[in-house]
Structure formats: C-alpha cells, structure tokens
Write a structure and sequence with these properties.
The complex is a heterodimer of chains A (401) and B (408).
Chain A (H helix, E strand, L loop, with lengths): L7 E9 L33 E9 L10 H36 L3 H18 L9 H4 L2 H5 L6 H10 L14 H10 L5 H8 L5 H33 L8 H23 L23 H17 L12 H8 L6 H17 L5 H34 L12
Antiparallel strand pairs in A: 1-2
Chain B lengths: L1 E9 L21 E3 L22 E2 L2 E2 L4 H16 L7 H10 L27 H16 L13 E4 L7 E4 L6 H22 L2 H5 L2 H5 L17 H14 L17 H10 L5 H17 L3 H35 L3 H17 L14 H12 L9 H15 L8
Antiparallel strand pairs in B: 1-2, 3-4, 5-6
The chains are: A mainly alpha (401), B mainly alpha (408).
C-alpha cells in the first residue's frame, strides 16, 4: 500500500506594523488552505515589524499513523478471552462439585445448589459462545455446549440404554446446558419426582447428568488450554486476510450476534423464520424463567466485546469500538450508533416477560419488535462496521434459491 | 505535502490586550498558502457498451434464469384468488403461503419456493404476522358472512348500484383482503426482494470475490454445466421479481398472471411516468453487463436507478388509492371505495419497502404503522370521508414527492 506522508507546516508570520489612529487587531485563526501566490506579501510591512514565526509539525492525518491492531489482539486474548475461559472453567467445576454432592445426597437443598451453579455457568457461557475459533471451531465446541431445543427423547434413550457416545454429533442435542436444563427441570412434573429419578438405585439419571457435565468440563479445558498456548500466534496475526485473527474473530462476533443471539434466542421462537411461533425453542425452555436473563447476559457479552471491556472490570481496552473511533470519518459516529442500538435492544429485551415462552403466547409482537431492534444492529455490524474495517464477511446466508 | 504560509500584519502599538468584540476592526490581510494540486492519473475501467436487451450468454448458452421468482409470482396470484374465495380454508391458505404447497397448479408444489418466507424478509419482523392475521380474519369472519349484506361494523358482501356495479367481500372495517394481500406483496415481497435483497450492495458485494475470479456457481435449466456466477445470478433473481412472468428480452408489462409489480409498473408507465419502464429495463440490462465486466461502480449506479424508479410505482399508487377511495365515497360507490382503499392499504404497507435516492424509504415501518392505524381507527374504512382520505393522501405525497395523476 502506498504510503502517503503528509506534512503540514504552518508558518505563521504576524507582522504588526505601525498605523496611527486605529485599534487594529488581526488574528489569524483559520488556516484554511486557499490558493494564493507569494507576491508582495510584505509590501505593507514596515522594516521594524515584530516578526514571530511559529512552526509546528502536525500529524492530523489518520493515514500517517495506524491503529495498533496488535494491542487490540492483546487486549482480546489477554484481558477478555483467556480470563473468560478460565472463569467459565471454574464455574463449570463448581457445577461438577455440586453435582457430585447431589449424587451423594440427592435432596432438595442439593438440587437447588446444582440449579444455581448451572445457571451461573450458563450465564458465563453466554460470554464464551461467540469465540468459535481455533480449538473451539475444530471440536465443534458450541455444538457440544448449547444446542437447543434439546432432544428429550434422545436424552431419555441415552439414559436408559447407558450406551452412548457424546462425541458423536448425533448427540449434540442431547448434551450441554439445554440437556441439563431438561434434566434438572423437565424429567418429571414435580421436584420430588425429579429427585426420585436422580435417586434411583440404577444411577442412570445421575450418571448421565454427571457424564454430560464432565464432558462439558473436558472440552472447556481443551479450549481454555488452547487459548493460553496459542495466544502468541493469535496476537501476531495482525494482517488483514481471511484467516487472520482480527478478521476471524470479528466475523465470529458478528455471526454470533446474528445467529447465536438474534436468531436462536429471539427469532426462531418468535416465528420469524417459520410461519408460526415456536415457543418450545426458547433457551432454557424447561426452567422457564431464565430465557430473558440469558438473553440479556448474551447482549452484555456482545457489548463488552465490542467495547473491548476487560474481564471483570469497567476498563475498556483496544477493541472494535476504539478501532472504529480511530477510523471514523467526519460526520459519522458508527461506534456510537452501534452502542446506542445495543442499548435499545437491551431496553426491548428488558421489557419482555422473563419467560419468553409465555411472552410469545401472550404478545408475540413484543418479541418481533425486539427482533427488529437487534436486527438493526446486524446491519450496523455486518455492513457498516465491516466496510469501515475493510473486513470481508466469511459466512453467507443460505439463499434457498 | 501541504505547506501553509500565513503572513499577517497588524499595527503593533495600539494593541493593548484583549478587547471587547465590538472594538474589533476586521482588516483584510494577504495570506500566502501553497496548496496541494490534485494529479490526474488515467486508469482503464471496464465499461460495457449497454446491451439492447437482457440477453446474456456463455458459449451460446443463456446464463439467465429466475425460475424461483416466476414460481413465487404465480403463487402470489393464487394466494390472491384464495383470499377472495369462500371455498378457502385457513389450512389451505397457510399451506400455500408458508409451505409453498397445496396449489391447484401442481407445478408450483414441491418446488421448495415459498412466498411466506419472502414476505417482509428484509424489514420489520412484525410485517409477516400482519399477513397472517389477514388470512385468519378473512377465513374466520369474511367467509362465514359471504352472503350477508356488509355495512359499517358488519362483514359481508357489498354491491354498488347500477349495471356492472362492483361487488366486494369485505370484513367489518371494509377490507377486501385479497387486495391488501396482493398490494402488500408488491412491496413486501417483490420490491423488498429486489431493492433490499438481490440488488443491495451488501448482498452483491458478499459474492464479489467469487465474481472477480469468475467462479460459475449455478446451472441454468438450458445448460449442461454451471455457467453463471453468483453475482450475475443474484441480479437475475432481482430481475425475476419484476419480469418473472414477462418476456425476458422484450417485456410487455401487464404480463399474464403477474398481479404484482409488473402490472403496476405498466400502469405508471401509462399514466404518471411515461418512459419509466424503459429506464428500469435498461438499468437492469446495463447493470447485468457491468457485473460480467466486473465494474461494480456502474453496477451500483444501475441498481440505484432501479431502486428509485421501482419505488415510485408504490409511491404513486399508495396516494392514488386514497384519493380514488375518497372520490368514490363522495359519489356513493361504496364497493368501489372499499376496493380502492383496500388496494391503498396494501400499497401503504409497501411504502416501507422503497428507497429514495438517499437510500432511505419513503416511510419507515413506524410511519407506515401510524398511517395504517389512521385507516383502522374506529370502524375502519367506513369512518372515512373524502376529506380524511385527502389528509392521508397528502401525508403520502409529502413523503414521496410524487403527485399521482387523475385524482384531483
């Protein structure tokens, strides 16, 4: 790329000549370039004029400096991705431990603790799902963790047969958070009966629950180690190619916003892609009351990543927001438009019933209006932001044509 | 390099610190500045000669096809008939709309093409459900009242007096649903798919690399092998939403069986804007050639012409039917009025699927909804007069800047 060096030299000569009888103050403040020639500029100036020369070198042109892409990658991996993964792993471990206690003493109190830890981990997961990169992409991490609706028949079949392979992609919808949601809340119609199932002497239910959680912990450990091990190569991949870190992660982020967040959490259950509403497709269908909380958490994750916010802190580092601000042309404030749109989406989600299933049956239009506001964000991110960043979209919509 | 030299002079001895503004005297001084002189370089931009018609071939075989669009246009017409027949059931209409199945014309079944998922696809998610409520109200409330006399607040049949007086089957607000449905699809499907879908910069640029390297992705029905790039084909699909049932190389407009945009473009050509049809066709043709020549600036210029011109069809008609409805109410032709207002209602809905030269629609989803709410208030169309409809018409012409002919 051709490098343009722009040097602005401002030589300001203020010559004050003696003139009698008038208060004349001329201040030259606006250095707007106009075409002028150099003829007789000093004709009116006396020899005894006070001449002041001020030379300054101003690099106001953005092309003379460049955005520190490396700093952004460092912030992403060191302050966001790795801490998030570590935190998530810790939370899954708590779920594991609580489940083990529940196995020993299957009672209401312990079930409650398992549910609590499940929700905490599920919320933490909302921050992880967008990073479909490296190991996560290779092992289909998301598909192991959060495919919903869960296939309850398959879950029950696996439980009763005790012969199943969770690595098999056919079992993607029989594991992860949605399968646990079903097991903790949906395998029977009262809590008493649910505990009964987990207390069976054949241990079939509790074993499946344990195996599913163990599997989640195992794949999470793999992904977590991957990030720690490969962070240097991640950071050094600053170029703008289809496979560079920035391009891939930015695409993953937008893809998540469009698919994992917009489509899965709101669009599909609200019937945007089908003729009719599909209320059983909400996230956390069996626990009922968490679909909104999870959606809000996902939006917070989106906001955090966009603004480059460091994990567990309010400090913003280099990220898409600062990158856009750096590149912003006069008169447009894309990063503000995006943040504002996130805020509107948040307001809309906050206005929904905590259980999206009941929101859909009582007033689905509210879901659709929420969808519209989230969708406006897709346009900002996928069209305007990518154009500004000169990044190509690496995924395409299915056309059906 | 910009060197800026400013030499200013002023009298020195009189200056004694900051003065109030009104004591300032502005004096002209000479400034010397050296400014950047733009240099001109010559680059070769591939610029196709405008072809005379929409006929594109490779090795003598046509690369143009848009069978899916032709199917959807036929499906739309069949849905229109179903929305005005007392033999329809909700299941049938929903099956046609959402699943693309159950059509009398068996060639439309099993194609995988649907009208429903292309209804309001690029706009607010609240629009498609509006079409669904129309189906429900038609089947639940209009069909059972098929032979009742319609009146304010009562669904049924209304026939204007005199020989050849129009008969409409309307809901209690006066809505003739097939009209809402068809005119809603003119914007909600045809125009939306063209302007916000296939001819949008994001859709086309998304397949730029593919077009640049000339990857053939699709195999037209008349070809044994893939011979058309994605971008070319997207453009053809946009073309198909307007000309899908017309003659590709010599469109007549008012194509048999096309009740959507093609039909109304013919009307606008005949009344409000003679010449518009050729302008649109030529832009489609040159834009397609530009894609093959990889000249995307030219492509987008043509896309813009198409978007702006096609949108006018909706803009003119939305206002026209408000005025026409008002005139008919005035002259006591209620069936005519209800028919016109039903068309207008659909066209107003379609106003959100338009694009002006600045890229914005004539009206946003919220503005459209506000206008429709005015039409829906109270007993709906029955509560309106020439005056109230004139007010709505004015709001539309204010938004579009287009004054339809023959209504004043």
């Amino acid at each position: 790329m051709k490098k343009i060096l722009t040097l602005l030299i401002l030589i300001l000569l203020i010559t004050c000549s003696k003139e009698s009888g008038s208060d004349t103050i001329v201040s030259v403040v606006d250095a707007t370039p106009v075409v002028a020639n150099s003829s007789d500029t000093s004709a009116n100036n006396d020899a005894d004029s006070n001449t002041e020369t001020n030379t300054s070198d101003t690099s106001s042109d953005s092309e003379s400096t460049s955005f520190d892409r490396k700093a952004m990658l460092e912030n992403w991996v060191n302050n966001i991705i790795i801490p998030l993964n570590e935190d998530f792993k810790t939370k899954l471990n708590s779920l594991k431990e609580e489940t083990s206690k529940f196995k020993t003493s299957p009672n209401s109190e312990n079930l409650k603790l398992v549910k609590e830890k499940w929700l905490i981990a599920y919320k933490s997961w909302q921050h992880i799902e967008m990073f479909d990169y490296g190991k996560a992409e290779e092992i289909y991490y998301q598909s192991k963790m959060n495919v919903y609706p869960t296939d309850t028949e398959r879950v029950e079949r696996n439980i009763s047969s005790e012969t199943y392979n969770l690595d098999n992609a056919n079992n993607n919808d029989a594991q992860g958070f949605p399968a646990i949601d079903y097991m903790l809340y949906g395998i029977a119609d009262t809590e008493e009966k649910i505990i009964e199932k987990f207390s069976q002497s054949d241990n079939k239910y509790i074993s499946y629950l344990t195996n599913v959680i163990d599997k989640m912990y195992r794949v999470t450990s793999e992904v977590s180690s991957y990030w720690t091990d490969s962070k240097d190569s991640f950071i050094s991949s600053t170029e703008n190619t289809a496979t560079s870190s920035i391009n891939k992660v930015t695409n993953d982020f937008i893809f998540y916003y469009e698919k994992g967040f917009r489509t899965n959490k709101i669009g599909i259950p609200a019937g945007v892609f089908s003729g009719t509403t599909l209320p059983d497709r909400v996230e956390g269908y069996y626990s009922k009351i968490y679909s909104k909380e999870l959606a809000l958490e996902a939006l917070a994750a989106v906001e955090n990543f966009f603004s480059g916010k460091k994990f567990n802190s309010d400090i913003k580092g280099e990220g898409l927001e600062t990158y856009l601000n750096f590149l912003k042309s006069d008169g447009s404030d894309l990063s503000k438009s995006i943040s504002d749109q996130f805020a509107i989406a948040k307001e809309k989600i906050s206005g929904l019933n905590e259980d999206f299933t009941s929101q859909i049956s009582s007033d689905n239009n509210k879901m659709l209006v929420t969808y519209d506001e989230i969708q406006k964000g897709v346009v900002f991110l996928k069209t305007d932001m990518l154009q500004t960043l000169s990044i190509s979209v690496d995924y395409v919509d299915a056309d059906g044509d | 390099m910009i060197c800026l030299l400013i030499i200013a002079s002023c009298s020195k001895d009189e200056y004694s610190g900051p003065a109030s503004a009104d004591s300032f005297i502005i004096k002209e001084v000479e400034e010397e500045k050296i400014v950047e002189v733009p240099t001109t370089v010559t680059v070769n931009v591939p610029t196709p000669v405008a072809p005379s018609d929409y006929d594109f071939n490779r090795k003598g075989i046509s690369t143009v096809y848009y069978t899916g669009q032709s199917s959807r246009l036929k499906m739309a017409a069949a849905l229109g008939s179903a929305m005005n027949s007392n033999a329809s059931t909700k299941e049938q209409i929903k099956n046609m709309f959402d699943n693309g199945e159950g059509f009398t014309d068996a060639t439309l079944n099993g194609t995988g093409k649907k009208v429903g998922n292309k209804t309001g696809a690029y706009g607010s998610a609240t629009v498609k459900p509006i079409f669904d409520t129309w189906i429900t109200d038609f089947v639940d409330n209009v069909i059972p009242a098929w032979n009742n006399d319609a009146s304010k607040g009562v669904a049924g049949k209304y026939t204007d007096p005199g020989t050849g007086g129009r008969t409409v089957y309307i809901n209690k607000q006066g809505k003739e649903y097939n009209q809402l449905f068809m005119k809603g699809l003119i914007g909600g499907m045809a125009n939306d798919q063209i302007i916000n879908g296939y001819l949008s910069q994001s859709k086309l640029d998304g397949v730029k690399a593919n077009n640049d390297s000339g990857v053939f992705e699709y195999t037209p029905p008349g070809s044994a092998e893939a011979n058309v790039t994605k971008m070319e084909h997207y453009w053809d699909e946009g073309f198909g939403y307007l000309y899908g049932l017309d003659d590709q190389t010599n469109p007549k407009l008012g194509a048999s069986g096309d009740v959507l945009l093609n039909k109304y473009l013919k009307k606008i050509e005949a009344s409000d804007e003679p010449g518009i049809a050729k302008k649109i066709y030529d832009a489609f043709t040159l834009g397609r050639a530009a894609i093959t020549a990889k000249n995307y600036t030219l492509r987008d210029e043509q896309a813009k012409i198409i978007k702006v011109e096609l949108s006018k069809v909706i803009g003119y008609k939305a206002a026209y039917y408000m005025y026409s409805g008002g005139s008919n109410i005035d002259s006591g032709k209620i069936a005519n009025a209800m028919h016109a207002l039903s068309e207008g209602y659909g066209f107003i809905l379609s106003l959100q699927y338009t694009q002006k030269a600045d890229g914005t629609p004539y009206m946003t989803n919220a503005e459209v909804n506000a206008l429709l709410a005015e039409l829906d208030a109270g007993d709906g169309f029955w509560d309106h007069t020439k005056a109230t409809l004139g007010v709505i018409g004015k709001k539309i012409t204010d938004a579009t800047g287009l004054l339809p002919q023959n209504v004043y």
